Fold this sequence. Notes:
alpha/beta
Amino acid sequence: MKRVMEDETFLMENAILTAEGAVYKAMCARKGALCRCRCLVTGYGRIGKALAGMLRGLGSDVTVAARREAARRAGGDNSVDMLQMADVAGKMDMVFNTVPSVIFTEEILKTMRKDVVLMELASAPYGMDMEAAVRLGLNVQIEGGLPGRYCPRDAAKAWMDFIERSVRE
Length: 169
């Protein structure tokens, strides 16, 4: 039987559902629209791509931070290298992290505006130094498992479709 993390169809569906849930949670956390909002998306994998596209569709000003040059080119004109992330992070209204290792150190978190919303979409150990973020009084939203919490029927359908594909194969 095929493993779920090897099933590209499932992974793409899950990324889209995660991105949609992140947009919803971001609007709730900001208590307002995302149009004209300056957003940083760190990581440009499946979730980062889906999320950046949705945010742009809503009129957000999106900056993508990615390691690979090809990902930065695909991420658009505002894309920056992870090493340049510290230069732009302090100007953002929303930060969406998809990188599952600490890239937001205390030094970078200190540059953040006090009203920024930091949304953690990665798995533990997360991309943010959580202790530093709390100590600095930043608004961190840990939002793992969004598809199951935000749209459980669609998440269950994605799982069921994966199981049916696996059985057929």
